[in-house]
Specification:
The chain has 318 residues and is an alpha+beta fold. Helices cover 36% and strands 20% of the residues. A five-stranded antiparallel beta sheet has the order 10-2-1-11-12, with no helix packed on it. It has a five-stranded antiparallel beta sheet with strand order 6-3-5-4-9. Strands 7-8 form a two-stranded antiparallel sheet. Strand 4 and strand 5 form a beta hairpin.
């Protein structure tokens, strides 16, 4: 059907930007659930599949209501979490002087069964390093406060079929950054100095800290083509990260943002309130029609064309 009484079809840039990650998350969530039907994480994958599938728009206020899954492999919820953390910490980081970006790796890639223990050991070593920095400052009768944000990230190597857990950190003070690296190297004798990095922080470059935790796709360096990681490998990462605190804040006087779930209600600034009954949109994940559709008129909520990314969602293992 088409809108009656000459009313224009609803269009929202907010949902236009959300259509692509919703398409990817729905597709990946479905295949994760099917490929890992015996996994203890399977309920999370089905939640990802249904994430924000029903949207209710109040035409009088421009507010929408939906339900989010808040899973770590969902791109919709991941983008929302990233935006919230940037809003909460971005200005603070830009106003903090003498910040340094530190990357720490543990020396070798690991296979699935080893991943969880490796992650726990890495996070404990990092926490011990911060404690050691504070103790050394207290002994020297200096201010022992350490301002630092730590983020765990995992990528996957399709060729070697191994995982690469590593830590990104923003820490105040060049000497603190060097001391952190020295402690890390001394407690990880197998790691190579080439895999560790210290660079001065540039204003606005905090995305590396707040982006994805586990990446569900891998880009081919030669062709530039992006493919979904094998679903068994992604399940190994999700299981390894279960109940693991992937982001930690030291010193900065702000509440921890990771547990803040996406709000089920939001006001769309790009939708003009017109009055009338609420509109209900349902997501159709079939064929080439991946989109939200209004129940009464059948009008799509976005102009998204699923054919542009559907082929890239085929994983390397089929």
């Amino acid at each position: 059907k088409t809108p009656q009484n000459g009313q224009k079809a609803l269009y929202s840039e907010t949902f236009e930007r959300r259509a692509k990650p919703k398409h990817k998350s729905t597709y990946i969530g479905l295949n994760l659930a099917i490929a890992n039907h015996d996994s203890p994480m399977v309920k999370r994958y089905w939640r990802q599949y249904w994430c924000s599938s029903s949207i209710e728009l109040d035409q009088a206020t421009g507010k929408t209501r939906t339900t989010y899954c808040d899973t770590r492999t969902c791109q919709v919820c991941g983008r929302i979490r990233t935006a919230k953390m940037i809003n909460q910490y971005g200005l603070i980081l830009d106003q903090t002087p003498n910040l340094y970006f530190v990357t720490l790796t543990q020396g070798k890639r690991v296979e699935g069964p080893e991943l969880r223990n490796t992650i726990k050991r890495m996070l404990k070593t990092f926490a011990d390093a911060i404690k050691n920095l504070k103790q050394n400052k207290r002994r020297a009768k200096l201010d022992s406060r350490i301002n630092c944000i730590r983020k765990l990230e995992i990528t996957y190597c399709v060729v070697k079929k191994t995982h690469h857990p590593h830590i990104h950190a923003l820490i105040q003070g060049e000497q603190n950054a060097k001391d952190l690296l020295c402690y890390w190297m001394s407690h990880n004798p197998k790691c190579k100095i080439d895999g560790q990095h210290i660079t001065p922080y540039k204003q606005g470059k905090y995305l590396e800290i707040f982006k994805y935790i586990t990446k569900t796709t891998t880009k081919d360096k030669e062709t530039g083509e992006e493919r979904v990681n094998p679903y068994k490998a992604t399940d190994e990462q999700v299981q390894a990260l279960d109940r693991v605190r992937t982001l930690a804040v030291y010193g900065f006087e702000k509440p921890h943002p990771e547990n803040h779930q996406p709000d089920n209600e939001e006001t769309l600034d790009d939708v003009e309130p017109k009055g009338g009954l609420p509109l209900r949109f349902e997501y159709v994940p079939h064929g080439q029609n991946w989109n939200w559709y209004e129940l009464e008129t059948g009008e799509p909520l976005t102009r998204y064309d699923a054919t542009k990314v559907s082929e890239t969602l085929r994983p390397p293992d089929g």
